[in-house]
Amino acid sequence: TPRGSFETGFYSGKYDIYDESRLTLISHLREAIQNRQTELYYQPKIRLSTGEVVGVEALMRWFHPERGWVPPDEFIPLAEKTGVIKHLTRWVVDQALADLKSLQSVSPGLTMSVNISARDLLSPGLDELFATALETYGLQAGDVIVELTETAAMDDPDKGLQALERLASSGLKVSIDDFGAGYSSLSYLKRLPADEIKLDRSLLQDICSSDSSRTIAETAITMGRSLGFLVVAEGVEDEASARLLATMGADMLQGFWLCRPAPLESIKDWLLTSSSVV
Ligand code: C2E
Ligand code: MG
Ligand code: MG
Ligand code: MG
């Protein structure tokens, strides 16, 4: 496409949080969705024991006509602060589930992981949003995984827990994203109705070169599995790490080593040509 790709695209802006341009930027985001400047990319996830592709994660991309590709780490926090996240999440859930229906025609049983923010979790209407999209596209609730960070769930622990339990009881799967990246309250983790935890890239980065990193990663995997969670290693960039994580007992893996996030059609092609990856 004339836009090039987000993955290789040039991005020069670093916005100050009080910079007026950030406010201008965010005021454009709502229109951007309508004007098709936003797009979902998908990144596959495999089961390590079999190499089977089990699902994909939806990752939002925004091509701003003047600024070029704006990374989600820039606009998602802004969208959360300004309340625009509500519109964004509405679009993401609908688009991701429509695309899941299309991906399942190539790869039956595939799951779709959708990132949501703390603000989404605590605002009413999230359950209906998923229920409506599931019905519209004729999908099973169990094929959809809701990813949120642990800090998001902890924003208001009691309400967060209630909201998560509601999602889980409707049949959706719940995943704790970026585990190990922030403050991790193990006693809270134990109470979360989650099916999966995703070990943050920062936790796995040096496992091939550092004994202490390896010990921490292995301990996190063992703990997660003992608590009954499926454990996903995310951000894996090389084969040596992938093999090590498999021997440490991680259930699933995502990362550039396997496949970079890519547009729907590219992921469809990838799914058709990579029936066994490892
Ligand atoms: P995340 O959910 O933890 O997603 C993983 C991030 O790591 C993605 O960055 C992905 O492109 C990147 N990644 C995957 N494999 C590798 C690897 O091997 N090496 C490295 N260095 N990076 C890898 P991305 O797409 O820039 O998204 C950043 C964050 O923005 C996401 O982190 C998520 O928290 C948020 N985000 C993205 N899309 C959405 C969305 O639709 N809604 C919400 N609420 N948040 C989103
Ligand atoms: Mg995620
Ligand atoms: Mg993550
Ligand atoms: Mg993240």
Automatic annotation (TrEMBL):
Residues 22-275 form the EAL domain. Coiled coil: none annotated. This is Diguanylate cyclase/phosphodiesterase (GGDEF & EAL domain with PAS/PAC sensor(S)). It comes from Marinobacter excellens LAMA 842. The chain holds residues 581 to 858 of 858 of the full protein.
